[in-house]
């Protein structure tokens, strides 16, 4: 059941001619109520930097993945380097248990995130 906002002629006549309600664009009648109007979020004069944020997120993920894989796998097969940080990672036994514990938690997080999105969209 869709919720509709009540608007009466008396409330719109009380507002001035330059009010924000007259400047808003209406949604198309067939769009679901949970969709957004993306044209009102970013103006045409403002540059779209979404792809830059995507590249930054991808780069940070790759750096984190590389550092984690070194700490989990590669450091066990490397000789002692003389570097305090790298030798500490090699001698540490915490990270070898981190991956088996993280996998089920990640699966549950993804499942509950998906379930929450479905419940939000369909209610």
TrEMBL record:
Presence of keyword Transcription: no
Record-linked InterPro entries: PIG-Y
Transmembrane segments: 52-74, 95-115
Low complexity bias: start-end ranges: 7-22
Signal peptide residue numbers: none
Lineage: Eukaryota, Fungi, Fungi incertae sedis, Mucoromycota, Mortierellomycotina
PANTHER family: OS01G0939000 PROTEIN, TRANSMEMBRANE PROTEIN
UniProt xrefs under Pfam families: PIG-Y
Ranges for region Disordered: 1-36
Keyword Cell wall biogenesis/degradation among UniProt keywords: no
Keywords: Membrane, Transmembrane, Transmembrane helix
Name listed for the protein in its UniProt record: Phosphatidylinositol N-acetylglucosaminyltransferase subunit Y
């Amino acid at each position: 059941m869709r919720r509709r906002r009540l608007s009466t002629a008396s409330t719109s006549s009380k507002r001035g001619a330059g009010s924000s309600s007259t400047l808003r664009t209406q949604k198309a009648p067939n769009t679901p109520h949970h969709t957004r109007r993306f044209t009102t979020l970013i103006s045409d004069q403002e540059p779209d930097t979404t792809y830059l944020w995507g590249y930054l997120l991808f780069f940070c993920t790759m750096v984190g993945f590389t550092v984690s894989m070194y700490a989990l796998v590669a450091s066990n097969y490397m000789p002692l380097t003389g570097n305090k940080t790298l030798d500490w990672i090699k001698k540490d036994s915490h990270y070898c248990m981190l991956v088996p514990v993280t996998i089920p938690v990640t699966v549950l997080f993804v499942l509950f995130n998906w379930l929450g999105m479905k419940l939000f969209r369909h209610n």
